[in-house]
């Protein structure tokens, strides 16, 4: 061109390739998630691209569960085998204390500003990073909240002093028809699990104040009915210990005694012991109580202590699920 004609191509706004890749990644992820789930896109976004609301596949009712996603796209991802190590207790000790194991991962370099935002949000609202390999049309997931808490911080790394940090995302965490759904459903239960832990802790403290065996049984049955209404028990599909506790709680509510206490009483009766005569006992009850009442009350305490112990197990071990640690 020449004369009066102007070539604007050199000065006009251009669309960065990173934007194209990012939009393709979000579009691909929304396409492969179940159709009965609802994906809401944030615009503008400040670290969160999608809010995925989970719905029942059979009834199409909302489950009241949400998973937040930060979506990143790459033209091609390279699989790398890394030696990962864990800690005996990531909340108590720093440094690597377990033997390592080899895990296949893809690596992604992420801005630490996003990690700082996620850490401020706390653990109750899971934020998943999804890295989409556009060439292979595969998407991988890792929970950023738990990654910070169980992988980055225990290594003694002050990530906020860095501009970026490289994350290892297990290739086992690929989103496909079954496994990907399991990952979303597991993290979707996070808020319900924390609410359950808090409820059980409150109930255990209240049960400590009951001095009468009958009062304790009735209060425990009331508490069991409250816990039974919670939707958290569906997480037992992915956590066998929670499923076992559900069965124990159901047995107690139906029979007014725990399985363990019933077995002890049966053994005492076979041994010819008098389980009905009141005797003084000051540990589990106050005043004159029978052996039957002692076993019943003791079983209630042990059941609620086991329920309360689920939170410890969750923080100590279960949170490492789907992370690049030996508990993967």
Describe the protein.
The structure is a single chain. With 328 residues, the chain is an alpha+beta fold. The chain has two domains: 17-188, Trna Endonuclease, Chain: A, domain 1, CATH 3.40.1350; 191-318, no CATH class. The chain is built from nine helices and ten strands. The strands form three sheets. A five-stranded mixed beta sheet has the order 1-2-3-6-7. Helix 2 (112-121) crosses helix 3. The radius of gyration is 26 Å and the shape is elongated. The mean pLDDT is 86.
Helicity level: 40-55%
Low-confidence stretches: none
Count of folded domains: 2
Strand order of the largest sheet: 1-2-3-6-7
Oligomer: single chain
- CATH class of the largest domain, named Alpha Beta
Estimate the strand proportion. Answer: 15-25%
CATH topology label of the largest domain: Trna Endonuclease, Chain: A, domain 1
Structural class: alpha+beta
Number-wise, the strands total 10
- Mean pLDDT over the residues: 86
Q: Separation of termini?
A: 62 Å
- Cα-atom radius of gyration: 26 Å
What can be said about the biggest beta sheet? Answer: 5 strands, mixed
């Amino acid at each position: 061109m020449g004369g009066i004609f102007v070539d604007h191509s050199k000065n006009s706004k251009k669309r960065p390739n990173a934007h194209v890749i990012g939009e393709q990644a979000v579009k691909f992820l929304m396409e492969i998630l179940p159709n009965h789930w609802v994906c809401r896109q944030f615009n503008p976004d400040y670290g969160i691209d999608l809010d995925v609301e989970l719905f029942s596949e059979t009834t199409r009712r909302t489950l009241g569960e949400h998973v937040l996603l930060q979506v990143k796209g790459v033209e091609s991802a390279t699989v790398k085998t890394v030696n990962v190590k864990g800690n005996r207790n990531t909340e108590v000790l720093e440094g690597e204390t377990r033997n390592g194991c080899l895990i296949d991962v893809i690596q992604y370099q992420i801005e630490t500003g996003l990690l700082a935002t996620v850490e401020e949000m706390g653990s109750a609202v899971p934020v998943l990073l999804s890295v989409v390999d556009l060439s292979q049309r595969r998407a991988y997931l890792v929970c950023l909240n738990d990654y910070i808490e169980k992988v980055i911080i225990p290594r003694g790394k002050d990530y906020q002093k860095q501009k970026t940090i490289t994350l290892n995302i297990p290739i086992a965490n690929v989103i496909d028809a079954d496994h990907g759904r399991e990952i979303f459903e597991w993290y979707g239960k996070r808020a319900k699990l924390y609410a359950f832990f808090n409820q059980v802790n409150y109930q255990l403290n209240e049960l400590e104040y009951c001095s009468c065996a009958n009062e304790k049984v009735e209060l425990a049955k009331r508490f069991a009915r409250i816990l039974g209404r919670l939707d958290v028990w569906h997480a037992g599909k992915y956590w066998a210990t929670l499923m076992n506790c559900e069965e124990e709680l159901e047995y107690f509510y139906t029979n007014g005694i725990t399985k363990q206490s019933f077995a002890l009483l049966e053994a005492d009766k076979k041994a010819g012991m008098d389980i009905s005569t009141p005797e003084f006992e000051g540990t589990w009850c106050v005043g004159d109580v029978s052996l039957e009442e002692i076993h019943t009350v003791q079983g209630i305490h042990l059941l609620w202590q086991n329920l309360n112990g689920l939170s410890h197990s969750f923080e100590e071990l279960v949170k490492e699920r789907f992370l690049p640690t030996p508990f993967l």
